[in-house]
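User: Hey, my collaborator sent me this sequence without any context and asked if I could get a structure. I don't really work with proteins. Can you help?
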Amino acid sequence: MPTRFFPAPRSRQTPYRLAAPAVLAAVLAVAGCASIPEPLRGDYAGFPPATTSDQAIGSHVRWGGVLIATKPESDITCFEILGKSLDRQQRPVDYDETAGRFIACQSGFQDPEIYQQGREVTVIGRIENIEPRPIGNYEYRYPIVDAETIYLWPERSDYDYYPYGYPYYRPYYWPYYGYGHFGYGHFGYGGHGHLGIGIHGDHHR
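Assistant: No problem. I've predicted the 3D structure and written it out in structure-token form, which is a compact way to encode the shape of the chain:
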């Protein structure tokens, strides 16, 4: 019996298979953007407070950290902040490290009972100057930020999440946006929601 040859089956790539990677990439891009609260989105200078030089004055930054002190003055409130690295949601990471201290000031009165020591914030603003101030007997050079937005994060629950945006547990919140004395607020959304207060105001100087 003569040998019969059969052609190899032709690869069939349906339009769905061809489009799937592009659709997935678009979905991931939208999801990554949506996980960042709207007041904190944008592109900013990438250096931390600890490496701020005189040449950086005037740069727009997005820094975050833990409140050390909240000090209302006659027409502004200044926040001393222990800088931290930010995760993918632009929230300060919760472990023992520092990116350097800085001070953020914003026009108006902000209550120290709300902005208590230990609360996490993310700040957007312009570096106005660098000011030496004592920490004990050490003279520390604080970058002073003229803050446009100070975003107060919710206190962390007993079930925390991994640094840099990998969730272990997070409660669900309905979205809420509002305007009031504290400006624009963003109160989370879905499984990666945040219950946060965004404060916007005019430059204080």
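In plain terms: The helical segments are 15-34. You can pass these tokens on to your collaborator as they are.
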